[in-house]
Amino acid sequence: MQAVLETLQNIGIFIVFLAARFAVLLVVLAVLTVVFLAGLAVVRLAERARRHALGLTRVDGLMWRAGVYFSPGHSWLQAREGGTLRVGLDDLAQHVLARITEVMLPEPGQMVRAGDPVTVIRCGKRRAAIPAPVTGRVVAINRRVVSSPARLHNDPYSRGWLYAIQPEDSSYARLPYGNDSRTWFSRDAIRLSQFFEHQLGMAAADGGELVAPGPLLLTESQWAEMTQTFLQAPK
To answer: What separation in angstroms does the CA of 141 have from each of 145, 153, 194?
Structure first.
């Protein structure tokens, strides 16, 4: 009988030990979860603050940025110190150029003319030539975008810029800016959704975002029509 009691006592001690270890594990997991969620919240708040500082706003399902000029070919231009302009591709262009795999930029010092194809974007086997929005001399390029094309999608209005240019004149100031650019951008965002609906029979989801990655489903002729329509400045 004594042996049975001792055995039961040992089993009880073992169970208590396991319960204590399990409780400690639960506490550790709870603490880690709280830390993770707090960190995630901080990251989200920081990203929201950064977007607010950049003037980013969702317009008809796409991100539009205040404080920059927009060209008809969906490049944006930001005036910098020294009179230079930083050039990038807006969020509509990101939706046209799905899954960018390669970026080819003009050389620093190169003279370019408005409308000339100076940037080449590859999306797998397809390519799109992006025209210069203004005439001038290229003074810098974003080599990080060349080495990591995903930056164009991840941060198109900031770290995903393409090149900087010293404009020949101030004609860029006539491009859409402020509320005018927002109205123009909204109109083209709707037009892009309608393009996919017409070409693919796809309906836009809530907020204007496409149900499927439309550009990947286009034929070669449809791709050419899309890039010509949205990425080329009218002659």
So the answer is: 9, 17, 34
Whether residues 89 and 48 share a domain: the answer is: no
220-231 and 179-200 helices, crossing angle to 10°: 170
Q: Which residues contact 202 (CB under 8 A, 6 or more apart)?
A: 196, 210, 211, 212, 214
Determine the Cα angle at 151 with ends 94 and 58, to 5°.
45
Range of the domain at 31: 1-54
Residue 102's H or E segment, with its range, is strand 102-104
Claim to verify: residue 10 and residue 76 sit in the same structural domain: no
Whether 89 and 193 map to the same domain: the answer is yes
102 has which bridge partners? 122
List, for residues 57-112, the tens digit of each pLDDT value. 999 989 999 999 999 999 999 999 889 999 999 999 999 998 899 999 999 999 99
Residue 233, both tokens: 């400045």
Q: Give the Cα separation of 118 and 111 in Å (integer).
A: 10
Backbone angles phi, psi at 77, to 5 degrees: -130, 130
- Of 68, 58, 43, the residue nearest 161 (C-alpha): 68
